[in-house]
Design goal:
It is built from 5 helices and 7 strands; from the N terminus they run ββαβββααβαβα. It is of the alpha/beta class. It has one domain. The two termini are 19 Å apart.
Length: 164
Amino acid sequence: MFTSQTYGKLNIENIPDKLLLFYERMRTYDAPIQVIVGTDSQNHSKTKIVTVIAIVCEGHGGIYFYEISHLDKLDNVRVKLFKETEYSLRVADTLLETIESDSRFYDLYDNSTFTIHVDAGRSPEGRTAELIPTIVGWIKSVGYECEVKPDSFVSSTIADRISK
């Protein structure tokens, strides 16, 4: 179950309708529109995983939906990052299955970029830089665009804030 500040609680199958409403309002701006999925997690007594679906019109804002899951605590950074990526890909695939199965969404599908945001950075001090080539390769191999920090704002900002 996903939550939206605008639309309340929704099943993932209902989100494409909301994305389409936003897309139709924004296409008059002739600006790039992206559908982005990103996940971040934080360790508490369990690992709290937050996956976000966002649609953004460059220069004109966006809306987002989020889902919270809990797993047994994941202490290994590598395992956590791979689990976050797995969640993002699962949600993106489910979302696209719905979009591709209904002709109402063809314009949205054909004129938007579908991207996965990963909460990993290239900083030499960080613990995720060495994992980036593998994660990016995985995401691109299944057909999505990919962004990492500092450009992965859906995972590193929206999902991060909700996961705390």
